[in-house]
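fyi for ur records
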Amino acid sequence: MRKVIQPGSYLLLLATMLLALASCSKEMSATNGTNQTANTSTTSTSPTIAVASDSTGVDSVYILQTCDNGFFRDSIGASGLPDSVMSYLATNYPGYSFQRAFQIKDSAGAGGGYVVIISFNGKPVGLLFDASGHLQRVLEQRERGDMEGEGWHPGGRFADRDGTHRDSISLTALPQAILSYMSSNDPTDTLVRAFRNYDSSILVISSNNGLFVNLFNAAGVFVRRVALTPPLSAFNMPLIQNIAQDSLPAAGLTYLATTFPNYVFETAVSLTVNGQLLGYGVLIDANNTKYMVWFDASGNMILTLPVW
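which gave:
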């Protein structure tokens, strides 16, 4: 007899299985690319950090991290970061490459936190941790000409911040190569949403006893498929429904705004069993990296999964 999981325990199991998924991805990687070599020490109170915007090492963007009055950044190597920070990076950004790190200090030299810059899927990600190594937020990125004001301009790298969702692709407008691949390899999937990334690769979100992201390159060639939820048949078939951004709990919206400054909302779903709300999943874009963020029914974050 198949065991039926009670709705009240679903979110705990969901979070556990998603964490296992992220850990498995880490185990499957040949290397996480982490560079443990210490950097030459530099000190700065600048409100920005210039980084390469892609794997070519050119076309810089700027990561915003304003040092409060009396504080400065002191450059450190990966070996100078707390174990909790290194563990967070390995678990949440499998396959990442370490780029730079800084310790935030006050005028007396006391540590107040850490800024870490990594490359994830060839794109820069800046992260702010507190002194204990707990994530505070994913730092916003801007192009040089957008340092003031809203942080984007039409046609720029972060132009999707205008809220018009120009990165969205109609399912009927997907390249035939992608439609053919999905029809042949995942014929029972229901296509939900599709997005074109800044590098012209395409993400297709599909549903089939769970949610999946299917990545294709600019030519429509399949790259990989990642589960955004565990298989749901064991949970008495939760109902997955698309919902609007303003249907999310206030606590969830506050968390997103605080943790992902200037993020772009892409899509959201709710999970219910027998009419009981279990939680929400929200797909966002933060600085050209997409994240799936899971919340419980009250809007408390239970897991953040970087997608691509």
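Residues 43-139 form one domain. thats all i got for now
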